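INTERNAL AUDIT FORM
Audit reference: QA-55
Scope: verify that the stored structure record matches its stored sequence.
Auditor: D.O.
Record contents follow.
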Amino acid sequence: MTEKKILVTGAGGFIGSALTEYLHKRNEAVLAPDSKELNVADRACVEAFPTEEIGHIVHLAGRTFVPKSWEEPAQFMETNTFGTLNILELCRKHQIPMTYISAYIYGQPEKNPIQETDRINPNNPYAKSKYMAEELCEFYAKQFDVKVSVIRPFNVYGAGQKDNFLIPQIIRHAMWEESIRVMDLSPMRDYIYLEDLLDAVYLTVKKVQEYDVFNIGSGISYSVGEVIDLVQEILGSRKRVECAGQTRKNELNNVVADISHARDVLGWKPAHTLRQGLEKMIGQVKWKDTCMRNDTK
């Protein structure tokens, strides 16, 4: 158990809420303010936040939905980039180490698997805002001796994720609708189960003391069509698949994470295959649906 508390920004979000529960289960003392208590984009709010009990910050607060970033790029920069700057200032002034949860920022890869040292090429406003925040992390680490670990998750999935993300949408369609509807069947992604990501985050809190960057993925990619097939196989369903044949702006064909650095430095590797993660996620969705049905009786 750490002597001081772990501050989780963005604790009300998909990853933040799961991380807060994860840390509590490990008997860690946690501060988990909502966005009203700690608005990271508001510098005065961040500076007024009590820091004497904080031993580490896991910075998750930010805006995440890529399609929305094309509509509101300035708001993404304000929250994701300048919000991170405000947290870094807090770390600098009070000598608090930080784990920064970044994103996939490589754009169209030149090769697979992708290493942390490969060329960075953000291809949407969300990724650009996260990369700019990473640059600030590196600058503060090297110029102000702020201890920062950066995690670059690939495609995270798990219980509690919003329905506008791909895997929750596929599961919802496969369980309750007449057909499974997607825009494109071909894009391939490296999917990482939420619990595996949390394991990696926790290791950076406990182990890493200097600036470092870690890809967190599974090391294997799957197409949208393959994900649908797995979900239907787990559910025993044969729903019709409707593909709109639409390609998103700056779509990526195939991405695979090289996770050897996280293995070598953190001693981390994913504990779940995609099938195992989907089985857990579908089981949790079924359990939640059963509870809701019982509550309405």
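Auditor finding: record pair retrieved intact. DSSP finds ten helices and twelve strands in the chain.
Action required: none
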